[in-house]
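Problem 12. The chain below contains 359 residues. Write out its predicted structure in token notation.
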Amino acid sequence: QQMILQDIELQIAHRAGIKVDKGTLDQAISNLAQANHLTKDQLRQALTDQGQSWESFTNDLRDRILVDRLMQQEVENRVHIGPDEVKTFAQQLKEMGGVSFDLQQIFIPLPGNPTPDAVSAARNEAGQVRDRVVAGESFSRLAAQVSSSHDALQGGRIGWIKAGELPPSVTQTLLQLKAGEISPVIPGPTGFHIFKLLDVKHEQPTVTEVKTAMIVLRAGNSLQLQEAEARAQDIQQALQSGTRFSELARHYSQDTSTAGGGGEMGWVAPGQLPDSLERTLITLQPGGVSSPIREGDAIYILHSQAQRQQPVKEKQIMAAARMQLYNRIVHERMDEWQRRIRDSAYVEILESGLRGSDA
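Solution.
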């Protein structure tokens, strides 16, 4: 099911004109190699040793970037959170403390505008899947076979997620489980979830700070934008050739407060950058460099040098709350959007079949 959904997403991305240029793909490969403490040549050899061709690997990576950009366009950029929502959620975070869960999930979706029979059928399917897990079948294998979540092909592995990024009903259920246990079937607005709790942490609430460097290219009008985009490609190519980020920042960056120091910003805490930059920065592995990001009247290229967890200060609670609430809403909207495109594709297939039978 997840492979079919990915094919649909790729078709939509191509129809929307979303592309991945060579510089972006090369940077993604470099980031992946860096995250695994390998050079690009060592990464290529490791893939060969595992029986995967370089062409297959780069095609898969390009597809993942395409889908990520589609999600950003269709879901992430359409999430807007009001200050009152953040304030209320910040209070909930204080009460919740620093709880995080390491999770796997299986998601059984509902169709759009489901009838009572459709809801009952999906609930029953989820219950049968849970019974199979409890009886000893592999959670990862079942997730890959039947789940419709975006992480299905990874065995449903979500990884560590803060309690505040989950719906309250899910958090309350997980708090009742021990590591290794399976949740009951949990209803949601778009379907039914089954979670496996791998581990849980109760810690002092923390935020992620990132030691950051940046290159800023001004793009206040159409001519500046064209020049900035061309310069950003030159920078990406130079990075691929081994030029140091600091050297490029000194040469190209138009941010007078950081360019002289090689783009160094020091440790960046939540709330210090615009949301679009902060969300990109937090996803980079240490050593990773972002693709060019348009924000306001400039194009930014970010370099994550290191990460650390720091206790949440009072003034950072609102920023942390905004980020966790944003992540929760994105996950929910992503499920809704994927359900809509899945239903739309099913209707197109039915209509095509009917036209074919009438011919």
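Discussion. The radius of gyration is 22 Å. Students who got a different answer should revisit the alignment rule from Section 12.3.
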